[in-house]
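User: Fold this; tokens only.

Assistant: Input:
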Amino acid sequence: MKGRKLSLTQKLMFIGGAIVLAVVVAIGGVSIWKSMQSLIGLSKTNSQQQSEQMAAMVRMVMEEEVGKAKAIAAMGPVVQAARQVAAQGASGAHDAIAQANEALRAIIGVAGEQYEGIFLSDASGTLFGGVLHDGNTKLYPGVQIKDRAYFKRAKEAGRPVIGQVIVSKISKEPVAVISVPLKNEKGQFLGIVGVTLKVGFLAETVSQTKVGTAGYAYMTDKEGTIIAHPDKKLILKLNLHKVPGLEPLAAAMDSGKSGVVEYRFRGADKISGYAPVGINGWMVGATQTKSEFLGPVRAMAWQVGAVSVVAVLLTLLAFFVFSRNMTRPIMVATEGLSDGADQVAEASTQVSSASQQLAEGASEQAASLEETSSALEEMASMTRQNADNAQQADSIVKASSGDISEAQRSMQALTQSMQEISQASTETQKIIKTIDEIAFQTNLLALNAAVEAARAGEAGTGFAVVADEVRNLAMRSAEAARNTAELIEATVKKVSGGESILKDANQAFQKVAEGASKIGELVSEIAAASGEQAEGISQVNRAVSEMDQVLQRNASTTEETASAAEELNAQAQQMRQYVRALADLVGLKAHGRKGEKRKAASGPSTERDVPVPSLKAPSKSKKGNGARPPAVSQKEPAQVSPEELIPFDDDFSEF
């Protein structure tokens, strides 16, 4: 159940069971892991050894067949037929070829189904003799093998070679040709003896080799194509490189070395040992599924699980018996402590009730005195504020009077400046008029000069141009002088208007200065009256202070009593917490009947320790006779209850 606490018995059983389970699981896990690693290592070693043994066996068998092929090539009829064909051609060596065929037929009869056939070729790669496993000698003569790899290799190497596994065109079965070169006394190449060996016997030999219970062996060529497998349908049709999931196996076997590889194929984890045969890049592999050789590990895991369950059950039983015997005395002690805590709580309740009655009386007196003191404080504060404001207003009015006087002087100076500007404008008009007259005279002189230049003819042309320019300048000067005169005239008019406005403003400032002087006198009178009023309130406040000293002594006595009750209640509450913790530890329900009855009688309360508020009297004003001791602060004395003044926790529902 959510939020439920465990008992001591349950805790011991849980811890003991967890420890035993952890130990058993750890030991079992380590044992299983080591066993699994040992089995995997052993299986890898076995797979590699089996693959190496099979590779050695295949190599030995093929070397034995090569020896047989060399013996056939050394037979007298075969050598004689090869020499006569080289000397006289196939048509000239008919008898020798017939004798060689007879000798090969006898060998085929002894070998049985192991050989598909034995054939003879000349140096050009044309067959001139040969016998099939059924004794037929007519199929081979005339067949061309000069392009066959086994013929080229035997001719170039000059020693026996084994060809790659291919599908025979005669029997449609996988075969490998063992080629032995034929030479004369001088070592010249005369042709080859070819023994077509059926590799089906290799597949049977490999497939009969068991790897574990369901494992098997197989063999591939250098291209990764299967040449021996328990499933004959896969021979020469399955290539490891082209099957998804077999890439790790194909890459390992391409190395040409022996080893072990792990891979996952069709949802199963497998291991495969591999080893080179040493012939044509052939590789032998031995594969096995991991689940097969890890079967004992799974059985061990089940055994470890069963042992773990039994060990945990036995441990739980032992801890249950042990904890029951140990917790009985603790439960008895817990019940005794619970009864003692209830008795202490009852005593603290009685003391608290008496303290509450004393606190009620002190609280009511303190509330009344506080209201009176608060009203006096507000009156004193307002009176002081009025006096301060009046003084500030008086200072501001005096400062304003000085500013207004300064403004009057500035206005008078500004008026005089405007008059001087007007006079200067008049003088400037005269100067502009003089400039205009000079421009007019210059224009006349330029006109006369132009007339004289016209009379002079060509000699006065240059002088005429100069006179014309002088006349233009005189006209521009006259026009500028007229514009300037108009602007100065307009400025003079505006200065005159401004002078009139300044006179009106100066008169207004004089009236403002007179009003400010009257306001200053009124504000001074208000400030004096406010000071006298503040002094009277201070005397009343001193009388209230004397009353507060008497009330403070009563409040101090009440506070000491309430503190004693609070301390007793805190000790009872702390004892309950200790008993509750001990009861939770042993799994005991510590709800006592007395606590329940007390809860019903006194009502709900919090279980945390609530401090008793101190009783403080209202503080004196700054103009009082000194510092005052703290007093009760109650804004609504009619609503004060004993629980608010001296809170006492009496809720035992959780104990």
